[in-house]
Amino acid sequence: MITTINSLSKRFYFYQKLRFPVIVLSLSLLPAILSSGTIVTANPPLFQVAGVLISSILYLLHIRVIDEYRDFSHDNIHHNLRPIQTGHISIKELQIIDIYAMVIFLAIAIFAGSYSFLVGVFMLIYSYLASKDFFIGEKLRQHFFIYNGINIIQMFLLQFFAYTIFVGSISFTTLLVLHYIFTCIGSIIIEFVRKLKIPGTDGTGKDTYTWYLGFNNAVIVYLFFVLLNTVFFYQIMIIITGQNTLWLFFSVVLFCISLLFALVHLIKKGTKTEQLMQLSFLIVYAIFNLVIYFVKLY
Fold first, then answer.
1. Residue 250: what pLDDT?
2. What pLDDT was estimated at residue 5?
3. From residue 159, how far is each of 9, 207, 226, 266 by CA, in Å?
4. Angle made by CA atoms 263, 33, 45, in degrees to the nearest 5
5. Closest residue by Cα to residue 244 from 234, 230, 232
6. Spatial distance between the Cα atoms of 226 and 285, rounded to a whole number of angstroms
7. Burial of 207 by CB count in 10 Å (0-12 exposed, 13-18 middle, 19+ buried)?
8. Do 188 and 148 reside in the same domain of the chain?
9. CB 277 within 8 A of CB 261
């Protein structure tokens, strides 16, 4: 039994390095979690922050496992070097891990309160329907943007779930609505930039935004969402502090950082510039969230 667990742990460790980097995801999620906590409560305690972080990672793992199962045949053809396709771990083993993950997820939701539990159950129901392509099947998958839009709703639900862990019943203030839209746009950007590939490296599976929009147009769409995200950050800071000029300058500077790396990537079209463009947004988005957290807290 212990040998089996150790063997599965090693295989999952290899899998997560390539397909679900837990440490990177945790560091990416933490700033948004902190800002979410201060938006709905004065000073979110550490145990609530930990609860949101752990439950978020577990739910994202759940979504990843669903994707692996749903896309198995597609990945066998178009992504045959992924861990499942190379035999490093099986879908059945991932599903076993997922069951334990969802038990912990629901336990956290129950501990947080009845409202969190109801939202958590709804999230699992939605993810089940998404795993079945809402029983529409291939017809849904043929519409790339609709298909991705329906699936990213799971990220919007996760953000709402985070609020409920911090505060239970939610009061929909202007600040909360702005912050919710801000974080949802952030989720869209992270999903979008992940599938914004260099021409020639976007694969044969027709599963990237570059494939459908073209590289230049995809970068323009990315920058539009980054600008929109920046505008919402600016509006949030005006409400929190009442100051205008300072946060306008700050917002413009951070947007220009993302713009610079996007333009460099637009010109160079290299693997390193792609990684730098992705990293630049993650850093800018983290700064936005940490600024909201510290300014609101102090």
1. 97
2. 74
3. 29, 25, 19, 31
4. 150
5. 234
6. 9
7. buried
8. no
9. yes
Q: In angstroms, rounded to a whole number, what is the distance separating the alpha carbons of residues 47 and 210?
A: 41
- Integer angstrom CA distances of residue 202 from 53, 72, 207, 211, 241: 32, 18, 8, 7, 44
Q: Which domain holds residue 151?
A: 1-168
Comparing CA positions, the residue from 158, 133, 144, 127 lying closest to residue 53 is 158
Same-domain status, 27 and 163: yes
pLDDT for res 178:
98
Number of domains in the chain: 2
Centre a 10 Å sphere on the Cβ of residue 197 and count the other Cβ atoms it contains: 18
For residues 13 and 273, give the distance between their C-alpha atoms in angstroms, rounded to a whole number: 28
Domain termination residue (choose one: 132, 151, 168): 168
Q: Which of 140, 168, 196 is the last residue of a domain?
A: 168
Residues of the chain below pLDDT 70:
1-3, 202-205
Core vs surface per residue 209-248: b (16+ CB within 10 A) or e: bbbebebeebbeebbebbeebbebbbbbbeebeeeeeebe
- Residues ≥6 apart with Cβ < 8 Å to 201: 271
Do 260 and 191 share a structural domain? yes
- Amino acid 279 reads L
Tell me the pLDDT tens digit for each residue of 200-236: 775 555 778 888 899 999 999 999 999 999 999 999 9
* Amino acid present at 36: S
The pLDDT of residue 273: 94
